[in-house]
Amino acid sequence: MRKDSRLSRVLHVLVHLEAFDAPVTSDTMANMLNTNPVVVRRTMALLRDQGYVRSAKGHSGGWSLSKPLNEITLLDVHQALGDGSVFAIGLTDEHTSCPIEHAVNDALKDVMNEAEALMLKRFGEITLDVLAAGFK
């Protein structure tokens, strides 16, 4: 099962952005994350659309924070990335007429929904400056 590490990677980049005195290019961020600059631009555009970062074109262009880290929560970033499930596990729907599948899904659904609600609540309580304080 493949993990979705976008949240972790974007948080990494946002905390780094605070440390730079000038805008950071997509190429620089792509090197930090070992990915393609196009992936960085697409992902950062989601954050720009929500007002967390800004971009500038040209020779001295790149990405920079539009808000201080203490005004951005983990929940903000999670939602900007598309608000998908925080879990890589999911319910099966291959045998929709099977009563056992229904029983398993019913049991898992409530627990997973409760755990996800708690996790998202906690995400809303943690600002990115707390992450940055961990390495300063």
TrEMBL record:
Organism's domain of life? Bacteria
A matching Pfam family: Rrf2
* Name of this chain's protein: Rrf2 family transcriptional regulator
Q: List the coiled-coil residues.
A: none
- Fetch the InterPro entries from UniProt: Tscrpt_reg_Rrf2, WH-like_DNA-bd_sf, WH_DNA-bd_sf
